[in-house]
Amino acid sequence: EWAVQRKRQKKDRQQAKQSKESFREKGIRKVNRPMNSRSLWKFFAIVWIGAITCWACNDNRVYDHYVSVDNKGWDNEDTLYFNVPRQWEGTYNMSVGLRSTMDFPFRSISLVIETSSYPKNIRRNDTIRCDINDVRGRMIGQQGVSSNDNTYPIAQIRLHRGDSLHIAVYHCMLRNDIPGICNVGIKLEKQ
Fold this sequence. Notes:
about 40% strand, 4-stranded antiparallel β-sheet, alpha+beta, 5-stranded antiparallel β-sheet
């Protein structure tokens, strides 16, 4: 029995040697290494980064910027300015974002958005009403830790290649200081 095992082991070694030689002749190197935990983490990191990159590439947003408003209240003379850099030719959806707190005393706020595109100098004025609280006084929108986030569509705008935008936003409420508005933002998405 011992002799049979030795012959079998010798035969297995010879077959392994022959397969190594055949791999060398073909220019193939056979590596039998188990995957260690470091290699496994590298593999998962590469897959994760690839997935995030693919997911991020599907976002049509070309501009998304918020400006803070004074904590004491947003005065009707405080105009907020947004400068959108040059864009490619196409149609874009423009929307305004408001972050508000429980201190906001009204149901809605009216905003004036003045848009100027350069170098063609095309001007556009939009007035929108943004609901912030419902009829019962509860805040509407996506709730955060200390504020609610609401997005309101403004308009579809057509830009030519190389056009940039200058946007001015202010409120047109009868009361001068409006408390409860934290941030105002402009978002531009390509269709």
